[in-house]
Amino acid sequence: MKKLSLIAFLTLFAFAPNAFERVENFGENPGGLVMYKFVPKTAQNNAPMLVLMHGCMQEAKSFAVETGWQKLADDLGVLLLLPEQTKSNNGMRCFTWFEKGDVTRGNGEIASIANMMSYMETTHKVDKSRVFVAGLSAGATMASALMASYPDRINSGAIVSGVYFGCAFQLYQSFTCMIAPSNLPSETRGEFVREASNDYTGSFPHVTIMHGSIDPFVNPVNADYSVDQWTNVHGLDGRADNTRPVINNQTIEEHSKDGKVLVSKLVIIGAGHGWPINSSADCGKPSPVVINTGICAAKILAKTWGLTD
User: What CATH number has the domain bearing residue 81?
Assistant: First the structure.
């Protein structure tokens, strides 16, 4: 009986996912962030990597579990880079998306995240053509900032319940952006990205925007403004050229060029503020801002990014 128990334990251990690991010395850290990584046993050389950024009042590791990304990364062999905000930077653990010094290439928190990426790319032989970013709320806006400031290093990204990039460059502006952002011309919003990227002329990341239709904290109009921003950056007119269904009668609007979807938007009807999961379909675990909507955002993104069929 003891022998069988030992065999069962060893079998369970062999197939258990790797643990999260904190990385202390990833390089310069001007933003004072903490770095965690998740390297699944299934990862191969030239593996894809996701930079996953939590929202306010969250921690990096629990966010990866609750959104379903740890399990999905383990299934698909995807490396996870998990930046974490500290209470000393922000008492609510929000990434500082609203300060210009933290979203400007080479400076502050955005530079810390870029240095974490460099560490992962060097240490784990990441496929640099398959680096993705996603975040929730403050993390989503920081994800947008990463795509704007480092477009040369990101293939695709997702903005979930976030504010469009450049809406705020000072703290006092952030509250207006969340509640009642100004309706600026698409060209102006696009210019925020072009300025952040130092007039970069290469390919910009493909962007997926997700937002709950009754989000009480971040006005859902931000989803439309993010679409305006990134379609302008991609040289598109802002009008969706395709709509396709997802489950529960929800639809995704797509904006394409030369047959490639460059910007897409999913507004989840009846959903509030949070990352969408479907725990009944083995996708995530609910928490205050990880919400059961019947839609698994992680799986939708994995398919959008070509990580699954």
Answer: 3.40.50.1820
Strands 49-53 and 79-84: parallel
Residue 246 lies in a domain: yes
Q: Is residue 228 part of a domain?
A: yes
Nearest to 202 by CA among 253, 140, 154, 152: 152
Q: What total number of domains does the chain contain?
A: 1
Listing DSSP states for 107-159 in one string gives SHHHHHHHHHHHHHHHHTT--GGGEEEEEETHHHHHHHHHHHH-GGG-SEEEE
Residues assigned a catalytic role: 137
Does some domain include residue 163?
Answer: yes
C-alpha 278/C-alpha 266 separation (Å) is 15
**Which structure tokens are listed for 82?**
């998990």
pLDDT digits (tens, 9 = 90+) for 67-99: 999 999 999 999 999 999 999 999 999 999 999
Is-contact 142 95, C-beta < 8 A? yes
pLDDT tens digits along 213-239: 999 999 999 999 999 999 999 999 989
Residue 118, Cβ density class (10 Å: 0-12 exposed, 13-18 middle, ≥19 buried): middle
pTM, to two decimals: 0.93
